[in-house]
Design a protein that fits this description.
The complex is a heterodimer of chains A (251) and B (389). With 251 residues, chain A is an alpha/beta fold. Chain A has 9 helices and 10 strands. In chain A, strand 9 and strand 10 form a beta hairpin. In chain A, helix 5 runs parallel beside helix 6. The longest helix of chain A has 16 residues. Chain B is mostly helical and 389 residues long. The radius of gyration of chain B is 28 Å and the shape is globular. In chain B, strands 1-2-7 form a 3-stranded antiparallel β-sheet. In chain B, strands 3-4 form a two-stranded antiparallel ribbon. In chain B, helix 2 runs antiparallel to helix 3, helix 3 crosses helix 7 and helix 8 runs antiparallel to helix 9. Chain B folds into 2 domains: 46 residues; 245 residues, MetI-like fold (Orthogonal Bundle). Chain B has 12 helices and 7 strands. The chains are: A alpha/beta (251), B mainly alpha (389). Chains A and B meet through helix 2, strand 6, helix 3, helix 4 and helix 5 of A and helix 5, helix 8 and helix 9 of B.
């Protein structure tokens, strides 16, 4: 779906390498992601999918290679890290809502402290996004009072309140009960339709087929294959991709 | 039902009856035990010809006390002597709690810091101080102080202050009527700081502008007392300690016993509080901090709005226990001659033979202090505790 003629790269990973001690978690990762592109990353556990997207907002720091987000290179420079983090939203597998704050306070915290937004404005925006994820009536509850699916939707709304240009999703539905997965995926599909640049680590292949512009398959810290969904699901080039797809698509 | 056994209806199978019955039996046994102890003590006291009663509290004690917060001499009553002991206990406990809290919070935060030097120093401190009995701490510092130079060769950290084997003395302003008003003005300053913080928060919520209140607050705090002091013509006469004979007279004096006891129990309790603070901070799930970082919050904000509120609920209850044990450990002053309540209580007991009464007084006092600390900390916990549902 991506229109190559207006391609404007927003994320570039160049020869990215990362080690945890002796263990090499990422091995010469190269990928360029354009504005508005929806990328779904899959692969067996321990393949470096999460590590890669966590490098993009520097929750993990890399040892070798370059990461350029929105023309800002991620280095030790704290100003750059701050600038990138306020542009990049992230949704985690385990929601990570702040349990001691009401939903509305979870949503207004960062806009008020980072964007220096007045409380009234921050709350107005928060309510808009809560309506978008369809739970405005939960605004004054604590996260512990919500279901898993509702919590994850709050977490998405919390990221959106910072009005990011890129969203990272790290297995957003893996901790959810089956009947709640759909409500979260629906929100993500809607977000994709609005043109958000998204990188999603997930095993939801149905979601990938409907939403992704690009499929990325990773194994053992390497990117094995980058392809459009049609090619990826019907005639993958790599044997490893083939094997992985057979394992997860047979059920 | 037909098949039901008859005994099922018996009162002995009723849960309500059983719980009442058990409690009645327990109450009866306790009463018996209490009566036995009471009559036994009475009998033994009568056999030894000791009259029980509280009359000794109003008779002259005849002994001197090394240091006292209030005026006291040997002609005063046992009651007043015990009051002196109580105030000395309170003084060392309050100072100890404040100092141990600062030390413990600093060391606890240092231990989880990414600064290698700081965290190593903090772990050494914790491991050494936590694993040495508190008795040794107190005796150690008592010994260290007595190894300091004599008054004539005292260490002088700044003009007018002296550190020596007789303790620490330093200059202190001579009392002046104006100081009462300076104190009132300081109170006004404290209220001013509270108002300023509220105002800054309101303003931030309204406009989004973050107003740092540290320096402004300091100004608001200091200005009123300073102005009042100047208005009274800036009265300031220092009572500078001076060497007269073998001892220093005047100024603010800390006895070697107070310092040894204070440092000993502070270092010991500080190590425990450091561990409590560390475990509290580490109990906050790492995902919480990652989420805050991903939102672009700075480390200071993360600590204040995300980590600390969640850590406090783990930190406060065990810290209360540490405050209580520090207060009770202050009774170790008896080892190095600090005239705390136990020290004076023992002397009273020895001189009067009123052992039951003297011990009862001491127990009641510690019990009361502990209850007050517990109540205060519970109130704080209720205010600071966070709601989750």
């Amino acid at each position: 779906m991506s229109d190559q003629s207006t391609a404007e790269p927003v994320i570039q990973l160049v020869n990215l390498n990362k080690w945890y001690g002796d263990f090499q978690a990422l091995c010469d990762v190269n990928i360029t992601i354009n504005r508005g592109e929806r990328v779904v990353v899959c692969g067996p556990s321990g393949s470096g999918k999460s590590t890669m997207i966590r490098c993009i907002n520097r929750l993990e720091h890399h040892q070798k290679g370059e990461i350029i987000v929105d023309n800002i290179e991620l280095t030790d420079n704290l100003k750059n890290i701050e600038a990138v983090r306020s542009e990049v939203g992230m949704v985690f597998q385990s929601f990570n809502l702040f349990p001691h704050m009401r939903v509305i306070d979870n949503l207004t915290l960062a806009p008020m402290l980072v964007r220096k937004m007045p409380k009234a404005d921050a709350e107005e925006i928060a309510m808009q996004y809560l309506e978008r994820v369809q739970i405005p009536e939960q605004a004054y509850k604590y996260p512990g009072q919500l279901s898993g699916g509702q919590q994850q939707r709050v977490a998405i709304a919390r990221s959106l309140c910072m009005q990011p240009r890129i969203m990272l999703f790290d297995e957003p539905t893996s901790a959810l009960d089956p009947e709640m997965i759909k409500e979260v995926l629906d929100v993500m599909v809607e977000l994709a339709d609005d043109g958000m640049t998204m990188i999603v680590v997930t095993h939801e292949m149905g979601f990938a087929k409907t939403v992704a512009d690009t499929m990325v398959f990773m194994d053992k810290g390497e990117i094995v294959e980058i392809a459009s969904p049609d090619v990826f699901f019907t005639k993958p080039k790599s044997e490893r991709t083939q094997l992985f797809l057979n394992q997860i698509l047979t059920h | 039902m037909e098949t039901k056994n008859k005994t099922d209806e018996s009162i002995f199978y009723s849960n309500a009856f059983r719980s009442v019955a058990y409690q009645a039996v327990l109450f009866g046994l306790l009463t018996l035990l209490g009566w036995y102890l009471y009559s036994n003590v009475n009998e033994n006291l009568a056999r030894q010809g000791i009259a029980t009663g509280w009359n000794f509290l109003t008779t002259s004690s005849g002994f001197d006390i090394g240091e006292s917060v209030i005026r006291y001499d040997a002609g005063d009553t046992y009651g007043r002597a015990l009051l002196v002991g109580f105030l000395n206990t309170l003084r060392v406990a309050v100072l100890g709690i404040v100092l141990a809290t600062f030390l413990g919070v600093f060391m606890g935060v240092a231990r989880v810091s990414s600064n290698w030097l700081l965290s190593t120093i903090a772990s050494w401190y914790v491991e050494i101080c936590r694993n040495v009995p508190v008795v040794l701490h107190v005796i150690f510092w008592g010994t260290v102080i007595h190894l300091l130079p004599a008054p004539k060769q005292a260490i002088i950290p700044f003009e007018g202050a002296f550190i020596m084997n007789r303790g620490v003395v330093m200059p202190f302003p001579v009392a002046n009527d104006a100081y009462v008003w300076v104190g009132v003005a300081l109170l006004v300053g404290i209220i001013g700081v509270v108002v300023l913080n509220k105002w800054a928060q309101r303003k931030r919520e309204r406009t989004g502008e973050y107003i740092p209140t540290l320096w402004k607050g300091l100004g608001v705090l200091i200005a009123p007392p300073l102005l009042v002091w100047l208005a009274f013509g800036a009265p300031l006469v220092w009572d500078v300690p001076s060497l007269q004979g073998f001892n220093f007279k005047g100024g603010l004096q800390f006895s070697p016993e107070l310092i040894a006891l204070l440092v000993g129990i502070t270092f010991y309790t500080g190590a425990f509080i450091a561990e409590i603070v560390r475990s509290g901070i580490q109990s906050v799930a790492s995902g919480q901090i990652e989420a805050a970082r991903a939102l672009g919050l700075r480390p200071g904000f993360i600590m204040r709005y995300v980590t600390m509120p969640q850590a406090l609920r783990v930190i406060v209850p065990p810290t209360t226990s540490q405050y209580l044990s520090l207060t009770k450990n202050s009774s170790l002053g008896v080892l190095i001659g600090y005239p705390d309540l136990v020290n004076i209580g023992n002397t009273t007991l020895n001189q009067t033979g009123q052992s039951v009464e003297a011990i009862a007084v001491m127990m009641m006092v510690y019990l009361s202090i502990s209850i007050v600390i517990s109540i205060c900390m519970n109130i704080y916990n209720r205010v600071a505790a966070i709601k989750e549902r």
